[in-house]
Amino acid sequence: MRRDSRLSGVLHVLLHMAEFKQPVTSERLAVMMQTNPVVIRRIMGGLRDLGLVASEKGHGGGWTLCCDFDRVSLHDVYLALGAPELFAMGHRNVAPACLVEQAVNAALATAFEEAESLLMARLGDVTLGQLSADFHARFAKRERCAQEARPDVA
């Protein structure tokens, strides 16, 4: 079964964009994400509609961030993607009058609702600013480790 990785991909793109001072083209983002520029434009359109990014056409144009990373949660980005289905699993609805099917579906519905509620709450608790800070901490640690691994050259 195929997984929907758009949320992860969009978060990846947004963090990369935060590192650029100039607009970033769909083509450049597509190379970073190993996808087609059309896919990037489609995804970025939803982000633009919610005011997370802006776009400029023409020479020197591209996508820019226009949101405060500390105020935008992962839940906001999830909604900008159109709130895709979270779980690939679902109910069996072959015989709705079947009491066994009803019992199974009721149990699964409760479990799915609880899991979705927990996930939505967690997505609401994490901001793009927190993701960016985590990235920068990881980058700094990698740089420190790389410097410690290099012998001093006199």
TrEMBL record:
Record-linked InterPro entries: Tscrpt_reg_Rrf2, WH-like_DNA-bd_sf, WH_DNA-bd_sf
Pfam families: Rrf2
PANTHER family: HTH-TYPE TRANSCRIPTIONAL REGULATOR YWGB-RELATED (PTHR33221:SF15), WINGED HELIX-TURN-HELIX TRANSCRIPTIONAL REGULATOR, RRF2 FAMILY (PTHR33221)
Stated name of the protein: HTH-type transcriptional regulator YwnA
Naturally occurring in which organism (per UniProt): Methylobacterium iners
Gene: ywnA_1
